Amino acid sequence: MTKRSVIKQTIGSIGLGIMGGAFARHLLSEGFAVTGFDIDAKRRAALKKLGGTPAATATAVSRQCAILVTSLPSIAAVNAAFFSKGGIVDSARRGTVVIETSTLPLAIKHDIRDRCAQRGIAVLDCPVSGTGAQAANRDIAIYASGDHKAYVKAEAALKGFSRSVYYCGEFGNGSKLKYVANLLVTIHNVSTAEAMVMGMKSGLDLELLYKVIKDGAGTSRMFEVRGPLMIAGDYSKATMKVDVYKKDIDIIEQFAADLHCPVPLFEASKPFYAAAHAQGRALEDTAAVCAVLEQMAGVQRKKRSISKSKTRKRKTR
What we know:
Radius of gyration: 22 Å
CATH class of the largest domain: Alpha Beta
């Protein structure tokens, strides 16, 4: 009997981008039915191709499903999904559990929870630790926080699209842990780029550098995940876009300021993301900070030369 021979439950998915689309795919592979909505018609079509059911509106998803997963890129998108006419607050049934995975300021998360609670809708704060590429490989950890009864209802779905799930206690703890995790991601991404550029300047083969460092004490998950992008020098297939990550950086900065907590390495890392954005790399992967450091170091990558035989063939055509 295959996993998909018996449908476990129907999960509603609102937001089918890099992360949300990966969640939906894994849930389907685990035998859940998925009804989903995204403002991008191409993403709805992709869900249909996977075997899910695309909905014309977020309202249709909210009315049909007792468990919803939201993965949204901005506060504006959150407001539209939850609080617009026909949004989750208006249309979800009492007893619905919302797995809210977006990275947002704590005040926004609490506002979502409180306004949904007035309509009998339980919201779990469930941010994700991992990149889009990791989500695609089901290599993410989820920091779930909020009402434990609601968590129990949602636990099977959470485990359906992640490598590991941690129940972290009271609502908001998940986001706090996410801020700590992303603080490290911000630093480790830049440190990976710094190491790669030093390797380039010293004449090391970057494939060798990656292989050796990955197996030693100096490695990190960011080195392992984003190192290959930096070696290729191609950041066009973004698993986390520079402009989207700027939101996360701003959230961490404000969180640290509110706590009066020094974060010197985080502060030192921020300018490289701002520079990548200023250089027109807003839609590229955050690994593009490597290109910023290359420019600062005066590194010029060797372009692959076209062989003479290929050149002759092109001339004779």
